[in-house]
Amino acid sequence: MPEPRIAPSLTDGDVTLRAHRPADAEGSWEQSQDPLSQRWTTVPVPYDMTDAATFVGEVMPRGWADGSEWGFAIEYDGRYAGTVSLRDQGSARAEIAYGSHPAVRGTGVVERALRLLLEWGFAEQRLETVLWMAHTGNWASRRVAWRLGFSCDGTLRQWAPQRGELRDVWIGTLHRGEPREPRTTWLACPVVEAYGVRLRPIVAADAPRIQEACSDERTQRWLGQLASPYTRADAEAYVESRTAMLADARGETWAVTEPGDDRILGSVGWFDHRPGVGCEIGYWAHPDARGRGVTTRALAAVTDHVIATLGVPRVTCFAAVGNTASRHVIEANGFQQYGVERLGARVRDGRADLALYDVLADEWPSRRPVTG
C-alpha cells in the first residue's frame, strides 16, 4: 500500500483528526506554555510562535512526506485541541504519541482522538503492534493508555531524552485484534462520608501535611519503616505510591478530613486483599487529629466500605503491642485481639511484638461503636 503524503480526515462526528494548518500555530503555542505539557513532553522551553509555526507548518508535514510520523491535529468544537501521531518503527510497528490543549483535558476528547488514530493505524497502515511510552509519574497518559487497552509492562530506566536528561519511562503495547478496553482493574478511591469524617483521595497538595505527620516523634517511633529525616520528597513519593496502588488494584488509601475542612488529618486505607479471605486496614494520624476520635471514625468508615464493596468476610488491623493509642483506635471499633506476633513490628529502635486484631463481617454490625 502506498504511503499517504498528507493526513486524511477522520471523525467520529464530534472529534476530528486532520492535517495541521497554519492557523493551528496559536493553539500549539498555548499548549506548549502549559506547565503540564512542559513537564511531560519534549517541547522546547522557551517555546515561541516561531516554534509553533515550524511545528504545524514543517515538522508535522515532513513526517507525512518521509513516512516517519503520521501526525494529526485534533479538532473539537471548531478549534485546535492537540496533536496525536503514530511514529513508524518499521516491521508493522509504530509508537503512539499524544498531547492535549489544556482546554480539553478531562473531557475525553484525546481518548476519542486516539481511538480514531488506532483504528486508522491498524486498518490502513496494517500495523501489528503499537508501542506506548510515558515518563514515569504521568498518570494522565497512563490512564488514557489503560482505557485504550494498552498493557503497562514495566519501566525503562533513563531511556527517554528530555532537555539534556534521560528520563525513566513506562512502556506498554497494544496488538492488532486486542480489545481496546482496560485489561486490568484501576481502583477508583471514591469519596466516603460517614461518622463525621470525609475520606477523599490523597493528592499532591497534601505533601506538606504528610511530611509534618510522618516527621512527628510518635509516628516516627511506631512506624519504623519511615525515612528519618522524613523529607518533602518522601511525602511526594508517598502520594505517588498511593496512585500506583490504585492503578495496580492493590488497595485504596484516603486522606482523612472533616466536612468543611479539606486539610489532611491522617491516612487510612486497605491493602493485602485476598478474595474470599479478607484484607488489612492501616492508618496514621497527623498530630492535629489526636485525641478527637478522628482516626477511630475513619477506621469505622473504611471497615464499612471494604465489607460492602469488596465483600470480605474478615478485616484485620495490627499495631505494635506498646502502641496504646493505635490499639485503642482498633479496640474502639470492636476488633478482637486474636494473637501476638513476636517481633512482628518494625519500630524505630528495632523490632517489637505485634498485636493482631480482626473482625468478621457478620460481627461488624453489632461491634462498631457508632452508626453511619
UniProtKB/TrEMBL annotation:
Transmembrane segments: none annotated. SUPFAM superfamilies: Acyl-CoA N-acyltransferases (Nat). Residues 15-176, 197-363 form the N-acetyltransferase domain. PROSITE patterns: GNAT. The keyword Transferase applies. Keywords: Transferase. Pfam families: Acetyltransf_3. GO terms for cellular component: cytoplasm. Residues 15-24 have a biased composition (Basic and acidic residues). The keyword Transferase applies. GO terms for molecular function: protein N-terminal-serine acetyltransferase activity; protein-N-terminal-alanine acetyltransferase activity. Residues 1-37 are annotated as: Disordered. This is Protein N-acetyltransferase, RimJ/RimL family. It comes from Nocardioides lianchengensis.
